[in-house]
Amino acid sequence: MRRLHLVFAIVVVTAFLSAFLAERRRPAAPPGDELYAPAGAPLEPLRLARGEHAVRGVVTDHLGRPEKGVSVQLTALAPLPTLEPLFFDSTDATGGFELSGVPAGSFELLLLAPGVPTATREIAVPLAEDLRLALGVPYPELKPAPDLARTTVEGLISAPPELGPPRDLGGYEVLLRPRDDEARWHGAVERRTETAAGGRFRFEGLAVADYDLSVLPGWAAGGSWPALATLALDAAALLRAQEEPESRALSLELSVGELEGRLVDPSGEAIEGALLRLRAVGDPPERAWPAATTDADGRFLLFDLPAGPTGKLYNVSVHAGAARRETEIEVRPGLRRTVALGELDTRPEGD
Q1: pLDDT tens-digit series, residues 217-232
Q2: What is the largest distance, in Å, between two alpha-carbon atoms of the chain?
Q3: Distance CA 315, CA 281 (A)
Q4: What are 194-220's pLDDT values in tens digits?
Q5: pLDDT, position 127
Q6: Peptide bond preceding 285: is omega within 30 degrees of 0, i.e. cis?
Q7: Closest CA relative to residue 232, chosen from 214, 249, 220
Q8: For residue 346, which of 292, 278, 267, 259 has the smallest C-alpha distance?
């Protein structure tokens, strides 16, 4: 029994040793052969399916003269049994073109030429005869840009004298906007400047064109509302100002009114720090003036309120402690009106 086990062990060892020696004698494979199969027969080159028809023709301009260099494109309107759905050519000196290898079917023909509207036409291939195509009327030539004329404009804004002693009008914004596309064609762009002390302003290097001028309060700088004064400037006036420097100065009186008032409680004591909000009747809610507050004597003054030529209606709302009050009053140009809000009980209910 022990001899049988020894023979079995010798056979197994001999088999493993033979397999090992056989693997060592096998030649090494080139790098990469273990990843790729041996190359087979070369593939046939890819051949695009093509049609058997030709589309020929002549392209002329709108006067019937041969047109060279026109791009002619033919696009299939429905899927075709081909890998080439687009055909193109350019016309030669005689206006001729030829698109070959076109299959039968429906196509859209496009003619592309600089300065001329694109022409399109549907055709069915095969054609009974050669095409004769005419381009449309060329686009009109753009007129040359005019020579830019520039000038300097100076001005002064003032408040209506009926509103009392003049105050400093520095810090207002003067806005110039081109009136239309014609003004922009003459080099006009939007311009803004801030008034100096006394209300003076100046625009240098201003393109001569038609503008609309607006004066805005300092808190509205960068916007276009509310306009405290407006003026139309035309190119002719600016040209005269260029020739007559003394006529450059503009004078604008603000078309504004003011509202004043005093808030007291039932005992007659002044209400300090009450909040006042103002909005022109009919304006959208976002067009509200900056909030104002009453001083130590309960007084307030709302100024620079555009009044237009005949007056404008405003809504005034007051928040003072628990008290709420709202009223409407007309603001008139050049007038300071008193807002009567009555006595306000600022105490919460039950106190």
Answers
A1: 999 999 999 999 999 9
A2: 138
A3: 6
A4: 999 999 999 999 999 999 999 999 999
A5: 93
A6: no
A7: 214
A8: 267
Three-state helix/strand/coil letters over the chain: CHHHHHHHHHHHHHHHHHHHHHHHHCCCCCCCCCCCCCCCCCCCCCCCCCCCEEEEEEEECCCCCECCCCEEEEEECCCCCCCCCEEEEECCCCCEEEEEEECCEEEEEEEECCCCCCEEEEEEECCCCCEEEECCCCCCCCCCCCCCCEEEEEEEEECCHHHCCCCCCCCCEEEEEECCHHHHHCCCCCEEEECCCCCEEEEEEEECCCEEEEEECHHHCCCCCCCCEEEEECHHHHHHHHHCHHHCEEEEECCEEEEEEECECCCCCECCCCEEEEEECCCCCCCCCCCEECCCCCEEEEEEEECCCCCEEEEEEEEECCEEEEEEEEECCCCEEECCCCECCCCCCCC
Q: How far apart are CA 54 and CA 96, in angstroms?
A: 13
Return the exposure string of 76-109: e unless at least 16 CB atoms fall within 10 Å of the residue's CB, then b.
Answer: beeebeeeeeebebebeeebbbebeebbebebeb
The pair of three-digit structure tokens given for residue 325, joined into one six-digit string: 């009050």
Q: Looking at residue 186, what is its pLDDT?
A: 87
Q: Could you tell me how many residues make up the chain?
A: 351
In angstroms, the CA 154 to CA 152 distance is 7
Dist CA 196 CA 199 (whole Å):
6
Regions of the chain short of the pLDDT cut 50: none
What pLDDT was estimated at residue 31?
54
Chain centre to alpha carbon of residue 224? 18
In the chain the domains, ranked by start, together with CATH numbers, are: 53-134 (2.60.130.10), 150-253 (2.60.40), 256-338 (2.60.40.10)
CA-based nearest residue to 235, from 203, 204, 215, 212? 212
Which two three-digit tokens encode residue 294?
Answer: 């009453």
Give the model's pLDDT for residue 330: 96
The pLDDT score that the predictor gives to residue 46 is 55
pLDDT at 174: 97
Residue type, 136: G
